Amino acid sequence: MWLPRFSSKTVTVLLLAQTTCLLLFIISRPGPSSPAGGEDRVHVLVLSSWRSGSSFLGQLFSQHPDVFYLMEPAWHVWTTLSQGSAATLHMAVRDLMRSIFLCDMDVFDAYMPQSRNLSAFFNWATSRALCSPPACSAFPRGTISKQDVCKTLCTRQPFSLAREACRSYSHVVLKEVRFFNLQVLYPLLSDPALNLRIVHLVRDPRAVLRSREQTAKALARDNGIVLGTNGTWVEADPGLRVVREVCRSHVRIAEAATLKPPPFLRGRYRLVRFEDLAREPLAEIRALYAFTGLTLTPQLEAWIHNITHGSGIGKPIEAFHTSSRNARNVSQAWRHALPFTKILRVQEVCAGALQLLGYRPVYSADQQRDLTLDLVLPRGPDHFSWASPD
User: Fold this and answer.
1) CA-CA distance, 4 to 253, in Å (whole number)?
2) Cα angle 193-198-204, degrees, rounded to a multiple of 5
3) What is the pTM for the complete model shown?
4) How far is CA 304 from CA 26, 42, 46, 55, in A?
5) What is the tens place of the pLDDT at every residue in 185-205?
6) Per-residue pLDDT tens for 7-49?
7) What are phi and psi of 117, to 5 degrees?
8) Helix (H) or strand (E) segment spanning residue 25
9) Three-state secondary-structure class, residue 170
10) Distances in whole angstroms, Cα of residue 84 to Cα of each of 227, 245, 282
11) E-strand spans in 196-251?
12) CB-hemisphere CA count at 13 Å for 364?
């Protein structure tokens, strides 16, 4: 597949042009319209990293009848400006997020062909809202959507319907894996036009490595951008450089939000561990819904129970797919799959993240495979503190 390539100078010019246009647009734009019912719209950013269970958590929001959801819209920025680095693309990604939160889909003009349908969005069929009225009539709002049916019935729906659909929901939820610090989001958190909540999802780095190795080809371009290789794709990561950067980013984000957060961040950030979500999915999602102003419906409760109590553990082909699995088994699969030497290396490069986020290291292969040894430390004042080590 042919992909456009840009020089570093071109990338810089494009970013400056986009930022200038956005500022002019913000100045001239009237306030965002309210969704049905007249209440202020709630905006939620599910902030995570690759292979951390974010697609699963995204679906827990996407299937809610009050939510307009998009999965990783910044994929379009990174594929168009693939010669940039994660840091240089931060502002372009942030500006894209703000526009989408305000249901302004014209922002995609810079990253998509002019002639396009709903299917132009990255993994568009993961959004129940794009498979339901007014975007498409495949599924009523109150039912659980299915990706294969949506792809069959909704692929050719006009792109303009995404804006109409977005404006009809009380909550806009975006899931993104392409932010490496929290400070770049401060303008959104302090923006009076937005009512933003941050859900920060983390996962045991050892489990992340195991999952990344299963989907290495799918992550090659993103790895190159994280490592700043000027457009060169990086499939292998023998030095765990990408894993180290991911761990460092989680530490930066968690510390910025919990040690001395700015006033506009208080009450707008919640950290969630995938392992806690896997063990007590209903309790965790109830808490997340309460944090974001949503209510768990009986149909959603039954669906969440079913997809977290299946028999599968996931396959490499399911890189961006959520299926029925045993969530607890998925969260511990790495303990049988990774060689102990790799685990030691991950624990070395991610020592700070393990300590801050509450994951117990192992010191032998026997400890690794002893599932009676709980490696997820309990949260609470007596057992676990979100503060960083001295």
Assistant:
1) 32
2) 165
3) 0.85
4) 39, 23, 18, 14
5) 999 999 999 999 999 999 999
6) 555 555 555 555 545 444 433 343 333 444 335 899 999 999 9
7) -115, 180
8) helix 8-28
9) coil
10) 10, 16, 40
11) 196-202
12) 4
